[in-house]
Recover the amino acids of this structure.
């Protein structure tokens, strides 16, 4: 039996609707989480990560 | 300052780890980007010249059909690929406050990737190709790509596990999504049965193969040329602008919407083909929805410059980045527009698509890379940039080059699309001879050559600038020692934590669990993978299910062994780069080419050869239109038959000996894939010889050369004469037949071609 036949006989025709609902739910949860009150300060701190990432002690000589 | 791992932690008595970043690997990838960029752009210029001046197809290995995939592979996987790795290796270490997981894996990744690129350069010009756009490389190289990609993934995920920064910055989310999705796309699209050391057949056929290929092809653009570059944008744009991203919230929404939506949009590459209507519409809808997150991301990138626009005047890095992000906006506006069926009907198969791709590639990918490297070079080589003026000159020369390129090619695309569909006052095709619609474009192709030359000139200035900067490097690079506290084993609550709600539902809705995910890179990666796989299966499973719904056409039979050999020559020469085999259900197409294509016609097509561009006419119904001798003359010198043709000559098919014995393994591989080959499974070479002799006799009888029965030309002609014959109703578009250019003394009206 080929892969195509196995998939054809798997009875997955409802799969599409279920997947779409799951995706929509996940998306709503993420947007809600990002925009809920009280997150602003924390998010602004994370936004500065690229600007804080080169901190270190004075360099030592090394062949690189 | 981050929550955890800050240098300030020392003051509070927390133990600090001392470590350094591996910038040597970043420098290696940077150089690879510069070098392969020049090579990829040069290949683009060569194929552009070949389209304007066909005499520039200097040799079989130097012909458009073989070099065009080399150009696309070089710019996508060599130039853009190495640019991604440059940015990923630089930013990941710094954002996670950790050296890469393994220097050995970094080195294996670097040299493995360069070896793959060299393998592509050594195989594509010699015709070793799977005939799938952006997935042309043959199976041994595909395996190598998978191995090297896993090395890269292990190295990045290992670094995440060892990080000293709790929060994973959004740029790394984009990197992770790219890593897992590219792996999935690559593996599934390249599943094939080997028929030799450098020859294989896709396990999918016809509609399924087309669907799988454009699921891959579209998402290769999405997850190789878009999401990783967005990660670079979210890291390097704040660095260059010296301020945080405009909205971190928007960047997170941007990420999830792209992950959720991009993967569904592939079928818009197959509108009005034999793909089912539902799949085509689904692809269009998701493509249109992509407008919102794409423009949200673009605006987020540009507004990162809020309050700092004055810096753009003096800073070439910002200039490149602003144009790059604007280019992203242009391309992601146009992409959804092109996915709308009525627009697609005009644009598909024309240069409009080529212009769209280059708007994105030259500005978004190219300029973001240039901007990133101009920013990186002084830091990596620990010396000021050699010449800011030269960088400015690069910017203006390359910008002008882009404008010349896209204006010319947009014009060419719209011109050709309109000419194809034009009817005269008598209801006949206004331009029945396809070559008329090509000849009209040649001046625009020359403008493209000029634009491309300017872009390369800019790239040479760039390479020189980087080289001179490198020359001024110190005798020994300083390696800063970074100190940061290790992460506690358990997630520590943020300062002033909210009280934990009572009850399961309240705990769920407090979303502490989601925040925990972000601190768990492997979990995060798995969830991203699940999102991508679920979306993919949503589209792909129905395409398997429709197998039973594809109308079976009793008349459609497998190719004969000789025709199969000819089909492989068609693939070797890259004919699919210029000729489609998919007639859309429009009157202007059926008048020109014949009856529209049906899904059942390509059930034995491993791989499908529907094509994506018509530099030459569609060939789906080519069989029987011309005598064998016409094809001989045409392959020898297309301009002897059609003076305005820009097709390369294929005279070498007349002299090259056909490998009859090798046909058996190819038939066997096809039989393994379920193609009902019958007696050919044990008798392919002799069957092929018999058919070759019949064709050779037909050519000789018509006044052509004799003794061609052992040459490759007979296999190619056998294939040409078979195309569309199975389902032919005997009623071709009368208009097309009437106006088809005659064979200039090589035979009259089409008769039955080769005997089968």
């Amino acid at each position: 039996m080929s892969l195509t036949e196995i998939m054809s006989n798997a009875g997955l025709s409802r799969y599409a609707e279920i997947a779409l609902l799951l995706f929509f739910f996940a998306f709503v949860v993420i947007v809600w989480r990002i925009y809920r009150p009280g997150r602003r300060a924390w998010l602004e701190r994370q936004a500065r990560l690229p600007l804080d990432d080169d901190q270190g002690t004075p360099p030592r000589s090394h062949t690189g | 300052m981050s929550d955890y791992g800050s240098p300030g932690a020392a003051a509070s008595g927390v133990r600090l780890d001392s470590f350094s970043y591996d910038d040597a690997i970043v420098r290696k990838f940077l150089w690879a980007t510069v070098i392969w960029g020049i090579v990829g752009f040069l290949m683009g210029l060569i194929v552009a010249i070949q389209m304007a001046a066909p005499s520039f197809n200097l040799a079989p290995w130097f012909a458009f059909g073989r070099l065009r995939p080399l150009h696309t592979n070089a710019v996508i996987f060599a130039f853009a690929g190495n640019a991604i790795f440059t940015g990923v290796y630089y930013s990941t270490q710094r954002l996670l406050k950790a050296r890469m997981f393994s220097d050995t894996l970094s080195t294996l990744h670097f040299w493995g990737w360069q070896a793959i690129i060299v393998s592509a350069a050594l195989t594509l010009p010699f015709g070793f190709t799977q005939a799938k756009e952006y997935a042309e490389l043959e199976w041994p190289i595909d395996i190598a790509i998978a191995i090297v990609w896993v090395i890269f993934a292990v190295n990045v995920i290992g670094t995440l596990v060892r990080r000293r920064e709790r929060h994973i910055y959004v740029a790394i989310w984009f990197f992770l999504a790219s890593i897992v999705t590219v792996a999935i796309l690559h593996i599934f699209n390249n599943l094939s049965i080997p028929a030799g050391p450098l020859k294989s057949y896709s396990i999918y056929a016809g509609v399924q193969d087309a669907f799988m290929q454009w699921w891959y092809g579209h998402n290769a653009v999405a997850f190789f040329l878009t999401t990783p570059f967005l990660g670079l944008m979210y890291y390097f744009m704040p660095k260059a602008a010296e301020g945080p991203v405009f909205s971190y919230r928007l960047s997170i929404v941007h990420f999830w919407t792209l992950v959720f939506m991009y993967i569904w949009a592939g079928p818009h590459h197959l509108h009005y083909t034999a793909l089912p209507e539902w799949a085509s519409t689904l692809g269009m809808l998701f493509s249109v929805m992509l407008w919102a997150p794409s423009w949200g991301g673009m605006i987020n990138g540009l507004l990162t410059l809020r309050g700092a626009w004055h810096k753009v005047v003096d800073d070439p890095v910002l200039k490149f980045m602003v144009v790059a992000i604007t280019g992203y906006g242009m391309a992601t506006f146009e992409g959804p527009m092109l996915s709308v069926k009525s627009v697609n009907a005009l644009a598909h198969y024309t240069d409009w698509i080529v212009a769209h791709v280059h708007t994105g590639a030259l500005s978004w990918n190219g300029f973001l890379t240039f901007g990133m490297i101009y920013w990186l070079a002084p830091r990596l080589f620990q010396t000021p940039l050699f010449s800011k003026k030269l960088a400015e000159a690069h910017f203006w020369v390359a910008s002008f080059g882009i404008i010349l390129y896209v204006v010319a090619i947009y014009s060419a695309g719209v011109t050709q699309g309109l000419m194809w569909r034009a009817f005269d006052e008598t209801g006949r095709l206004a331009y029945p001879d396809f070559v008329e619609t090509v000849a009209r474009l040649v001046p625009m192709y020359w403008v493209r050559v000029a634009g491309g030359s300017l872009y390369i000139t800019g790239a040479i200035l760039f390479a020189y600038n980087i080289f001179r900067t490198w020359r001024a490097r110190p005798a020994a690079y300083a390696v800063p020692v970074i100190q940061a506290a290790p992460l506690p084993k358990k997630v520590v609550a943020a300062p002033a934590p909210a009280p934990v709600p009572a009850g399961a539902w309240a705990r769920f809705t407090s979303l502490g669990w989601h925040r925990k995910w972000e601190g768990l890179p492997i979990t995060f990666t798995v969830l991203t993978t699940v999102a991508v796989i679920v979306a993919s299966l949503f589209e792909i499973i129905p395409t398997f299910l429709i197998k039973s719904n594809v109308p079976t056409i009793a008349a459609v039979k497998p190719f004969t062994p000789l025709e199969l050999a000819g089909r492989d020559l068609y693939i070797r020469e890259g004919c699919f780069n210029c000729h489609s085999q998919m007639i859309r259900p429009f009157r202007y197409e059926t008048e020109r080419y014949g009856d529209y294509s049906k899904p059942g016609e390509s059930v034995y097509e491993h791989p499908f050869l529907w094509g994506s561009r018509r530099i030459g006419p569609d060939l789906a119904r080519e069989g029987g239109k011309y005598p064998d001798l016409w094809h001989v003359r045409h392959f020898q010198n297309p301009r002897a038959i059609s003076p305005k043709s820009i097709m390369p000559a294929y005279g070498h098919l007349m002299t090259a000996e056909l490998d009859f014995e090798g046909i058996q393994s190819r038939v066997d591989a096809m039989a393994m894939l379920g193609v009902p080959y019958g007696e050919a499974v044990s008798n392919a070479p002799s069957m092929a010889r018999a058919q070759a002799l019949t064709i050779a006799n037909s050519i000789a009888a018509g006044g052509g050369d004799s003794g061609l029965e052992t040459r490759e030309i007979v296999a190619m002609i056998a294939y040409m004469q078979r195309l569309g014959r199975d389902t032919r109703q005997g009623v071709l578009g009368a208009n097309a037949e009437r106006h088809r250019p005659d064979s200039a003394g090589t035979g009259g009206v089409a008769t039955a071609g080769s005997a089968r």
